[in-house]
Write a structure and sequence with these properties.
With 234 residues, the protein is an alpha+beta fold. Helix content is 46%, strand content 26%. It folds into two domains: 145 residues, Jelly Rolls (Sandwich); 79 residues, Winged helix-like DNA-binding domain superfamily/Winged helix DNA-binding domain (Arc Repressor Mutant, subunit A, Orthogonal Bundle). Strand 8 and strand 9 form a beta hairpin. Helix 7 packs across helix 8. The longest helix is centred in the middle third of the chain and has 27 residues. InterPro entries: cNMP-bd_dom, cNMP-bd_dom_sf, Env_Response_Regulators, HTH_CRP, RmlC-like_jellyroll, WH-like_DNA-bd_sf, WH_DNA-bd_sf.
């Protein structure tokens, strides 16, 4: 959505995203009219754990690191989000504070839709409510499946699956494979998978020696996508 204004990006999301597909045209115009835009700088702490929000946050541009801040101020990364949609609906529906810290990856732009307006329109539209319930049910199912995968997959499989996810989000086709347009260190990966850097390095070297990936100076390149997909499977 490069070249579009924030409101234009939001209008595109309102018209195409599943979260808003049950709303009629008048409701979408109302949401668009009352939305506020907010921008964040790279690595900026956007939202804090235990923060209670009063708006629906819709990601318009950029990506988010989700995790927990440690006592020393470092972020324990749990996930990466770059789907342009609402990302705090569960907390709003439960009227509870956030359980994660959110940091901007690069420059980030979000739209803030007042939650009372969003829910009043949703409750007046049975189709919108049904769509949201179905969508959240699907997300919960995928979450259970993801947790099951994490409990049964070995480290090579989990690394392969995460690299595939990054390739979808940040991959750029290259003559020798797919280059990930995001800088990631082995320390970042070791924290993500809760292993020592030495342990992670052994698994990285396996992928490198097998010519599945190359990894240098925080730049990752996927050389053999079919083998990486096969490796990710249980």
């Amino acid at each position: 959505m490069a070249g579009l204004s924030g409101k234009q990006k939001l209008a595109t999301i309102l018209n195409h995203d599943e979260v808003f597909s049950g709303f009629n045209s008048e409701d979408k115009l109302m949401l668009l009219k009352h939305a506020r835009l907010q921008r964040f700088l790279p690595a900026q702490h956007m939202l804090r754990q235990d923060q209670l929000l009063e708006d629906v946050y819709v990601l318009l541009d950029g990506a988010l690191h989700i995790g927990w801040l440690r006592p020393n101020g470092e972020l324990k990364v749990n996930d990466l989000v770059q789907n342009y949609s609402a990302f705090n609906l569960v907390a709003l529906l439960q009227n509870k504070p956030l359980t994660y810290d959110y940091f901007a990856v690069g420059r980030v732009e979000v739209a803030l839709i007042p939650a009372p307006l969003f829910f009043s329109l949703m409750y007046a539209q049975p189709k919108a409510m049904q769509q949201l319930i179905q969508l959240l049910s699907q997300r919960m199912y995928h979450l259970f499946e993801h947790n099951r995968y994490l409990q049964t997959a070995n480290l090579n499989q989990r690394m392969a699956r995460h690299l595939l996810k990054l390739s979808r989000l940040y991959g750029r086709r290259h003559e020798k494979g797919i280059v990930l347009q995001i800088k990631l260190s082995q320390q970042d990966f070791s924290e993500l998978f809760n292993v020592s850097r030495q342990t992670l390095n052994k698994h990285v070297q396996y992928l490198v020696q097998e010519k599945i990936i190359s990894w240098g100076y925080s730049q990752i390149q996927i050389l053999d996508l079919p083998r990486l997909e096969k490796l990710s499977q249980i």
